[in-house]
Amino acid sequence: MHITNGEPERQIVKRIVLLFFAVQLLCGVQILYAQVDVTFQVDIREFTENGTFDPERDHVELIGDQSPLSVVQPVKLSPNEENSSLYTTTVTFSEVKRNKPLQYQFRVMINYRYRNEDLPRTIHIPSADTTIDAMYFNSYAW
User: Fold this and answer.
1) What's the rounded Cα separation, in Å, for the pair 74 and 69?
2) What is the pLDDT of residues 48-99, one digit of tens each?
3) Could you tell me the sign of the dihedral formed by the alpha carbons of 125, 128, 134, 135, in that order?
4) What is the β-pairing status of strands 35-43 and 135-136?
5) What are the structural domains of the chain?
6) CA distances from 131 to 1, 39, 92, 116, 125 (A)
7) How many whole angstroms from its chain centre is CA 10?
8) What pTM did the predictor assign?
């Protein structure tokens, strides 16, 4: 009968446990840093055609209830080069926000006064980069 103190076996078990935790940590960090880009678009033709929107003075913003969107730190939209009434922005959400509901609204600042959409829009933050179809300001698809 051969008696050993089990040191080599303990070292192997320790290495396996350490490797397991290292892999779990790396997977967790990857999830924290995984991101999804959502491109938002709105058509403000109502304001550009009637002349109330002056692109030199006025602007379009996006507000929402999931970080990085908020009411106090809105995201400014940029005009589309091919369509001056279409404004877009891309917002990057962390992976932990995936599939969570997002309520958002567009608002315009015209002549130094804000005008919000009447009702918030709702989506679930997608798991892959997405562009949301453009709709007119203050119009909704039911």
Assistant:
1) 6
2) 999 999 999 999 999 999 999 999 999 999 999 999 999 999 999 999 999 9
3) negative
4) parallel
5) 35-136 (2.60.40.10)
6) 71, 4, 12, 22, 11
7) 47
8) 0.75
